[in-house]
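Subject: FCGR3 protein structure
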Amino acid sequence: APPPRLSLADWLVLQVPARALLEGDELRLRCRGWNHANIQRVQFFHEQKALGGGTTGGELLLSPLQLHHRGHYRCQAKVYYVVWQDKESAPVTVTV
């Protein structure tokens, strides 16, 4: 598969492993600021439902992976570029 394309509009990127995921696996989702920009108050979403509180680490661990974990994920965070701004990643699809 070709590498993902990024544009300057992609302030936040939600990273998932580029491999097949099976039930029982450990899945770590990472929300990252573009070009190593500082981020705060990271919030993850599965479909449209918020998952837990805001984290500073920018990671969400799903373990053990189950069928109900499949679907669309995205993250929101405050990104620092001159000033703090609220941004949202493009959705990614997790297939189990």
